[in-house]
Design brief:
One of its GO terms (molecular function) is DNA binding. This is LysR family transcriptional regulator, hydrogen peroxide-inducible genes activator. It comes from Saccharopolyspora flava. Belongs to the LysR transcriptional regulatory family. The chain folds into 3 domains: about 5-85, Arc Repressor Mutant, subunit A (Orthogonal Bundle); about 90-160 and about 265-290, D-Maltodextrin-Binding Protein, domain 2 (3-Layer(aba) Sandwich); about 165-260, D-Maltodextrin-Binding Protein, domain 2 (3-Layer(aba) Sandwich), CATH 3.40.190.10. It has 9 helices and 11 strands. The chain has helices spanning about 5-15, 20-25, 30-45, 60-85, 100-115, 130-140, 200-210, 225-235, 275-290, and strands at about 50, 55, 90-95, 120-125, 145-150, 155-170, 190-195, 215-220, 240, 250-255, 260-270. The strands form 3 sheets. Strands 3, 4, 5, 6, 9, 10 and 11 form a 7-stranded mixed β-sheet that branches. Helix 1 (about 5-15) crosses helix 4 and helix 5 crosses helix 9 (about 275-290). The protein starts with a helix and ends in a 6-residue tail after the last helix.
């Protein structure tokens, strides 16, 4: 069954004759008759009663035409929807982002994207572990994700967009509070406030301290960055965060150890071309990351 055959059936039903339908379709009448007969043979039943030069739908033909009209209407809407996505006038972009990144990078990007594509829906998903985003990308739940580099799954491709320094958060009255930079080893004897163990920022903190030769003494854990900052400000300990995640805290000290940084990338599925809206969002996000002023 071919799409053009369905359109031919509708044309004959409207015109009431093969000759008028052929004229409307700019088609030779014998060709039209052949296509209708082929379809009737495939269906195993006649769609039209031939009454001299006139044709009328059989009972089976009336049932068939009712469904064909609905199917072609759905197809036309599907084509219009695809065209809207292609022209950035519709569709949806699903994006995964780490909470520690979203507040620093996304507001301006979302505003720019909304100006460019006011009819495109943006769906944001936050998660604290980059590996979970990789799984969501792989099973099609996300179009793009901002995650820690390097990513592990071979089915993903992407680019690095940010390499941000790690900074120490210390209480305002801490002896190190007026330093312009410091070595991680200077925090070896401190008590730490940290995210819970299943969070990516906790894993990052432990990795950085281990590279500096010590295990951090974590005495308070939380699940919220704002709570972490509040506890450090209250003197319950120090902490280490990437620069974006430390936004809003008044006393941050850059760490000058080699490799004390977090690299972020934006990834998508290798075998699935990005939709035009998703491709635009990727470019806007990459541009915003590149334009961030460096603090060091």
């Amino acid at each position: 069954m071919e799409l053009h055959q369905l359109r031919y059936v509708l044309a004959v039903a409207r015109a009431g004759s093969f000759s008028r339908a052929a004229e409307d379709l700019f088609l030779a009448q014998p060709s039209l008759s052949v296509q209708i007969r082929k379809l009737e043979k495939e269906l195993g039943i006649a769609l039209f009663d031939r009454l001299g030069r006139r044709v009328v739908l059989t009972a089976a033909g009336e049932e068939f035409v009712a469904h064909v009209q609905q199917a072609l209407a759905h197809l036309d809407r599907a084509r219009a929807g695809a065209a809207a996505v292609r022209s950035l006038q519709g569709g949806r972009v699903s994006i995964g982002v780490l909470p520690s990144v979203g507040a620093g990078l996304l507001p301006g990007v979302l505003a720019d994207f909304r100006r460019e594509c006011p009819e495109v829906e943006v769906r944001l998903t936050e998660h604290n572990v980059s590996a979970e985003f990789e799984r969501m990308m792989e099973d099609g739940r996300l179009d793009l994700a901002v995650i820690r580099a390097p990513w592990a799954r071979p089915g993903l491709v992407g680019r690095s967009i940010v390499r941000e320094p790690i900074v120490a958060l210390v209480p305002p009255e801490h002896p190190l509070a007026d330093r312009n930079e410091m070595a991680l080893a200077e925090l070896k004897s401190e008590k730490f406030v940290a995210m819970q163990r299943d969070y990516g920022l906790r894993e990052l903190l432990e990795q950085i301290c281990n590279r500096a030769g010590f295990e951090p003494t974590v005495t308070v854990e939380t699940t919220q960055l704002s709570v972490l900052q509040g506890m450090v400000a209250s003197g319950l300990g120090v902490s280490l965060l990437p620069e974006l995640a430390s936004a809003g805290y008044p006393v941050t000290i850059p760490i000058d150890d080699e490799g004390a940084a977090r690299e972020l990338g934006i990834v998508h599925r290798a075998r699935t071309p990005l939709s035009p809206p998703a491709a635009l969002f990727l470019e806007l996000l990459a541009d915003a990351a590149a334009e961030r002023p460096a603090r060091r």
